[in-house]
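The passage that follows is intended for readers who have already worked through the single-chain material. We present the inputs for a multi-component assembly, then the predicted structure in tokenized form, and finally a short commentary. You are encouraged to pause after the input and sketch how you expect the pieces to fit together before reading on.
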Amino acid sequence: MRRRFTLPALTVAAVTGSFFVAVSPASAHGYISSPPSRQANCASGAVSGCGDIVYEPQSVEMPKGSKQCNGGGSRFTVLNDNSKSWPAASVGQNVTFSWVLTARHSTATWEYFIGDTLLASFNDGGAQPGATKSHTVNMKGFSGRQTVLARWNISDTVNAFYSCVDLNIGGGGTNPTPTPTATSSPTPRPTATTNPPTPTPTATNPGATTWAAGTAYKAGDRVTYNGRSYQCRQAHTALSGWEPPYVAALWTAL
Amino acid sequence: MDRSVTGAGGPVRRAALALLLILLLAGCGGGAEEAPAHNEADAMFLQMSLAQIAEGQQVAAVAEERAANPELRAVAAELLGQWRTESDTMRSWLLSWQRPIEADPSAGVHAGHGDLHSLRDEDLAALRSARGADFDRTAVALLLGNLHNGVETMRMESADGAYPPAVKLAGEMTATRQGQIQRLLALASAS
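Having made your guess, compare it with the prediction:
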């Protein structure tokens, strides 16, 4: 009789230490399920060869401020792999992003980017999200194949949760080339110049003209915007939302 | 530093001796009759899973009844059936180990971090008040959240559990839940 009780007690003492170590990193939180994010496409089986992310698409948690799909660091790097055939959801200019939440952290902001362009930011002021969370975000004229990076910034920790969503904006389906926008490098978006739905009136002599959406700029072109001068760093067709002060990858302030 | 090392040495040595004694006694008594040992991870797996299943059942019961999409009703019904069987097994193991069905709230496992029991009263209220496509979306989101939390608990057991039947159950549950998560994600992306 005594033996029966002693053994579990000892076992408990022996494993308690390792158990708590094992449990504390388990940190459930959230990801975008619609349109499916990269981790949702892994968990749903739409994309294979994803590794451990299939078990916890909600756990892409890293310090705030990264522009990478995995939030930086060495975990879940498969999410940064633009050579993987991520399905792109066909959408219009207004896209509703829905989250699956497994823990309701107090929230600072929800941010949505394409490349360096902030599409939208929603400030929750430290509130806890409800049962569901969704945001409708305008694509600011982006078209064709793009990768939206969403960041859920937690208000009481240094961390954020990252979700990348591959989209085919405008639904044209004519430009399936993956863009490098979600990688770590500050590479600008070369595809924007070739998107068929974008009107591209050619500006033959932009010299020192005022910046205007719809204009095709070459590297070296100079423009003014809000009284400041900028030089084009990379050929592109300007879109609303790509104003020179906001897109350092395309414009250098002079 | 010296003192703490010396201090720890006593109990550790005593525990080692006690363990040796037990192993000897077990050997004399014919150890084959002993149930396989379980550890704290096993107990926590069962306790946390029971709590997570209880939460999931509340969502699935409403979804089974009210979802517009037949696939969502089917997943909910399937979960309810499997959860009944799984939780019966889990309770029977905890009872045989003379462990409580619920985790010790003073253990501090959930304090400040775990939050693995994430369903709140207002979440259920939001589900019950939702209508049409909005109801289905809310149910899918809540079920996915619940299943993901459950899979984390199962994976913890797969990594750290000691009781072979519980480790096996965790592996089977992980595979089953992954299949249901895939079906729910298909519903989420179509909505």
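Commentary: Residues 2-23 of chain A form the longest helix (22 residues). Residues 1-26, 172-206 of chain A have pLDDT under 50 and may be disordered. How closely did your sketch match?
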